[in-house]
Design goal:
- The structure is a single chain.
- This protein is of the alpha+beta class and 206 residues long.
- It has two domains: 93 residues, Glutaredoxin (3-Layer(aba) Sandwich), CATH 3.40.30.10; 96 residues, Glutathione S-transferase Yfyf (Class Pi), Chain A, domain 2 (Up-down Bundle).
- It contains eight helices and four strands.
- Helix 3 packs antiparallel against helix 6 and helix 4 runs antiparallel to helix 5.
- The longest helix has 24 residues.
Length: 206
């Protein structure tokens, strides 16, 4: 049975396509019109009480949250290739930067954009400047988060950076730009982008 992805091309599910393509598993869309609020319908809310995309259904397994979905796919379908083994010393680095994306990069960018006044010691994401410094340190002098080996951490961490830079929420420093060029060159990333474009055109979206 193919994996089902509750999907809309203008949602975070668009980024989940890259994870699916890297994992190399069959999948199908459950197209969900977020413009009409279909994500709050019973079909999705019964599986994900937040009523949000992406939500992935794999047999009896339901996984939500884009980072969790990506790591789940790597562990289940590409262990040793996209996810370090449990006893691999690199596992800590893999998890560290995968979770850094939603727990530090995203809130730091939002705090800066919205002009929130927060104390660094009170905010789990520190400051925008410290976030940028830390993010650059993850890939400085490396091809990918784990060095020469690409992993699902790059889909999560790198995909977040790419999105933020595309929408001008993060400045494209040389370290970030060169890293994103390497990510964009991956065939799976290109297939996912082509499929997202195809779906936008099919739905008459710009």
């Amino acid at each position: 049975m193919a994996i089902s992805l509750y999907y809309h091309p203008y949602s975070r599910a668009a980024g989940t396509l890259w994870a699916l393509e890297e994992a190399g598993v069959a999948y199908e869309f459950r197209l969900t019109d977020i413009m009409k609020g279909e994500q709050k319908g019973e079909s999705l809310v019964s599986r994900n009480p937040m009523g949000k995309l992406p939500t992935l259904v794999d047999g009896d397994m339901v996984v939500s949250e884009s980072a969790a979905i990506a790591l789940y796919l790597a562990d289940r379908y590409a262990p040793g290739r996209l996810a370090p083994a449990l006893d691999d010393p690199r596992r800590g680095t893999y998890l560290r930067w995968s979770f850094f994306a939603p727990s530090v990069i995203e809130p730091a960018v939002m705090a800066k954009g919205e002009g929130w006044t927060v104390k660094e010691v009170s905010a789990g994401w520190g400051t925008y400047a410290s976030m940028i410094t830390a993010a650059e340190s993850a890939i400085a002098g490396r091809q990918f988060v784990l060095g020469d080996d690409f992993s699902m951490a790059d889909v999560v961490f790198g995909g977040t950076l790419r999105f933020m830079i595309d929408f001008k929420q993060i400045e494209p420093s040389p370290i970030f730009s060169e890293y994103i060029e390497r990510l964009n060159a991956r065939p799976a990333s290109q297939r996912a982008e082509a499929r997202n474009l195809e779906m936008r055109q099919k739905l008459g979206l710009k």
